[in-house]
Amino acid sequence: MTDDADGFRFAYEPGTVVYGEGRVADLERELAAIGAERGLVVAGETVGTTDAVIEPVREGLGDRLAAVFAGTTPSKRLREAADAAAAFEEHDADAFVSLGGGSSLDVAKVASALVASGQPYEGALRNLEQAGTVPVPAGDLPPIVAVPTTLAGADLSVVAGITGKRDTEPVVRGGVFDGRLMPAALVYDPDLFRTTPHEVLCASAMNGFDKGLETVYARNSTPVTDSTALRGLRLLARGLPALGAGDRDADTMHDAVVGTVLVQHGASRSEGTTLSVIHAFGHGLARGYDLQQGAAHGVVAPHAVRDIFRAVDGRRDDLARALGVADGADDPEATGEAVVAAIDDIREALGLPGRLRDTAIPREDLTDIAEAVVEDGFMPNRPPGYDPGVADIEAVLEAAW
Which long-range contacts (CB under 8 A, 24 or more apart) does 33-36 make? Predict the structure, then answer.
C-alpha cells in the first residue's frame, strides 16, 4: 500500500455506471449519450439466443440495434474477435454492446481494436504469437457499452485477455492493455443477472469478491481504492451467502451487484491494476485445465491470504472490519485466521470446491503451476514484504490440495 504520508497518484477514467431494476431499458439513451447510432451486440451463443436475456436488450436498444453477434466462447479466441469486427463492418455499426460475462467483453474490446486498426486476422494472430498482444492503434476506438450478467468484476477494466489457436499448434495466450478499452458506459440491471444460472453466477461472484481483497492489500492501493473496495467487500460479505443460498430478491441482488461494481472501481486503470496474488494463482490453476476461474479462486483464496498474513500484515484489520469479523490489534494472528475463515465461509456458501483434489488439477503438476504463479504478471502487485518463491507457492498449493 502507498503510505499516505508519501502521497499518491490516482488517475482513473471510468465509464458511466448505470444501475437499477429494469435499467436495460435505458440502453438507447446511453448509446445516444456517447454519440453512437448503431450498436452491435456481442454475446455468447446461449446468452445471445435466450429470449429472457436478449429480448430486453433488443427492446432497450430500439432503433439503435445494428445486429446481434452471438459467437463468443469462454476460450476468447482471436477468431471470435475478428468475426465480431467483420459483423461490425457488415452491419454499419459504430459501437459494441457487450452482453454477458467477461469473455464477451474481452472479445468486444479486441474487436474494437481490430476495427480501428483494420488489421486482418492473420496479421493479428502473428502479433499475438510473437508479442503476446494485438496492436491498439492511435486515435479513437469504437466505443463499448457493457451489459454484464455475471459478477466476475471484469467490467470496469482497461485490459482484455485473448487466445489464439492454429489447427496443429498449442493455444497462444495474451492480452491487450490500453486506457481506451474502458467501456464508455456500463448498465447493471439485476433482472439480467437473475437470468444467469445459479452455478455460473456463484462462481463468477468469487472472482469479483477476490478483487476486493486484492485491492486492499496490493502494494499500489490508494485511499481512493480503499474506500470503494472496503465498502464493496462489506456489501459482498452480506449478499453473497444469501446469493449462494438461492436468494435473488432485491436486497441480495443489490448487495451482490453494487458490491461487485465497487470492488472493481479503480482496480484497473492506465497506471496498472491492483490485482495480485490470488489472481496469479487463478491464472496458474485455470490455464490449460478444465477449471473455471471462480472455482480456482474459491479453492486457493483462503490459503493464499493465510500465507500472506504469515509473512506480512496484509491489511488484516481493515479486511476484518470489512468482512464483519473481529479485529484485534493485540492478537493479529487471531485476526488473520478470522479473515481467512470468513473468506472460506463465503466460498462454501457459494457452493465452490474447497480442495484442489476435487478439481481437474493433477497433483503432479503443482510444481509447474507454482512456477507459473511466481512468473505471473500480477505477482509484482503483491503486498510489500511478501516475496514467495516457487517452493513457497507450491506449499500453498499443497495446503489447498
Answer: 33/185, 34/95, 34/143, 34/145, 34/184, 34/185, 36/64, 36/94, 36/95, 36/143, 36/145
CB 211 within 8 A of CB 264: yes
DSSP state of 15: P
Q: By the 8 A CB rule, do 215 and 225 touch? A: yes
Residue 72: what residue type?
Answer: T
CA separation for the pair 248, 148 (Å, rounded): 16
- Domains of the chain are 16-193 (3.40.50.1970), 198-400 (1.20.1090.10)
CA 146 to chain centre: 13
Distance CA 378, CA 381 (A): 6
Alpha helix locations (H) across 4-101?
A: 27-33, 45-49, 51-61, 78-90
Whole-angstrom distance, CA of residue 237 vs CA of residue 216 = 15
pTM for this entry:
0.94
Question: Within its chain, how far is the Cα of 352 from the centroid?
Answer: 17
Q: Within 13 Å, how many C-alpha atoms sit on residue 193's CB side?
A: 32
Per-residue pLDDT of 125-169, as tens digits, reads 999 999 999 999 999 999 999 999 999 999 999 999 999 999 888
3-state secondary structure of 156: coil
Residues 15-73 pLDDT 10s: 999 999 999 999 999 999 999 999 999 999 999 999 999 999 999 999 999 999 999 99
* Residue 179: Cβ within 10 Å count: 14
Q: Coil, helix or strand for 120?
A: coil
